[in-house]
Amino acid sequence: MKFTWFHYLAVFCAASVLPALSASAESQRPVPGPPLGEAHPPVHIHRNSAAAPPGYKPAQVRHAYGFDLLPGAYAAQGAGQTIAIVDAYGSPTIQSDLNTFCTQFGIPSATVQIAYPTGKPKRTDAGWALETSLDVEWAHAIAPGAAILLVVASSAQFSDLLPAVDYAAAHASQVSMSWGASEFSGEASYDFHFNKPGVTFTASSGDSGAGVEWPAASPYVVAVGGTNLALDSAGNRIKTNEVAWSGSGGGTSRYEPNMFQSPAWTSTFRGVPDVSYNADPNTGVAVYDSTPYFGSSGWYQIGGTSAGAPQWAALIALANAGRISPLGSAGGSLYSLNSPSNLLDIVSGSNGYAAGVGYDLVTGIGSPVAGSLVPALIAR
After folding, report:
1. pLDDT, tens digit, for every residue of 35-56?
2. Local confidence band at 8 (pLDDT 50, 70, 90 cut-offs)
3. What is the average per-residue pLDDT within 256-277?
4. Closest C-alpha to 220, from 144, 123, 318, 332
């Protein structure tokens, strides 16, 4: 039986829609206050097992997407980089949970740096704690040499999350945001939070099928949709069987412009998502969380597009570790490098929109072929 934890609050804002602005123009206009509303983490529990880890393990995912083809020692991958993970409420057990995860899978241990730019939360939220474990553990699994900075917002209100994003961007070149809320009029006026030189932001596209969420809708964010990842008996990705996940968020933004997606996507307005990653809870990943969640704790099999955002941030960290200067918003680079050798085009499945050849509103331009994509990003 699949259990789902999330809640939606529609976001309302009276601000008018503003056109996309250059960084210099944005620095000259008044900065608006935070938008009203609350974000949710799109995390899905497939099953819980306190004793043994269910779901895909780090070695399986690394092999499926080709991370194990990258040169260099395992422990050194991502060295010199910091992956910032922004979550509300955080987790009081995150360091011990990461230690357990690393010991279980033979991954080098790491100390989680934790920041509270809006103050320490006054309570623990079990759903956000599970999201935090997913984000930290799997970012570290993909880029074990990178430092992990967990930036904790004191609530899920945008008034707390966006200052946390600003703090993250000031301390890392890749920022993961596994949360979102419905689009709202005036959202483009808040996109300056993600328009930071030398910083790539990733965000989950949502888990309710066709429909667009913010901040994934921002053209300054790499929006990550979802797939069902099929492996053969040897652990290889069955490329013809990686299909769009029905829950993957996606669609055409009502408010955000298409800034770099042409010719893959030719609409005047932005298409969501940009790329994809394993998200179906049925092919979910192993996560350890000792914070009680409705009476359960221990190992979980977790899915949702929130699983893809931190792993794409880790992929960017691997690339930035080999570059002289970090990528800016990597969205445009990914589209320019769109080829079968770098990205697997997902051509079947549906979230209400059908996946097909080329860009689609379920999986974007596809899922990574990391063994080729990371070197291509380094060389770009």
Report:
1. 667 787 766 677 676 678 999 9
2. very low
3. 96
4. 332
Interval 189-248: pLDDT, tens: 999 999 999 999 999 999 999 999 999 999 999 999 999 999 998 889 988 899 999 999
Domains of the chain in sequence order: 3-12+23-379 (3.40.50.200)
Q: Contact, 143 vs 58, CB < 8 A?
A: no
Task: Return all residues near 218 (Cβ < 8 A) that are at least 6 apart.
Answer: 187, 188, 191, 194, 201, 203, 256
- The larger pLDDT score, comparing residue 329 to residue 364, is at 364
176: β partners: 85, 202
**Spatial contact of 275 and 312, defined as CB atoms under 8 Å apart:** yes
What are the tokens at 257? Answer: 């412009």
Report how far residue 149's alpha carbon sits from residue 177's, in angstroms, rounded to the nearest whole number.
13
Is the peptide bond prior to 35 cis by the omega test (within 30 degrees of 0)? Answer: no
Alpha-carbon span 372 to 341, nearest angstrom: 6
Average pLDDT, integer, range 11-37: 40
In terms of pTM, does the model score above 0.70?
A: yes
Q: pLDDT confidence of 311, banded at 50, 70, 90?
A: very high
Find, among 174, 190, 159, 117, the residue nearest to 330 by Cα: 174
User: Which residues are CB-neighbours of 78 under 8 A, at least 6 positions away?
Assistant: 143, 144, 145, 146, 314, 317, 318, 321
pLDDT computed for residue 37 by the predictor: 75
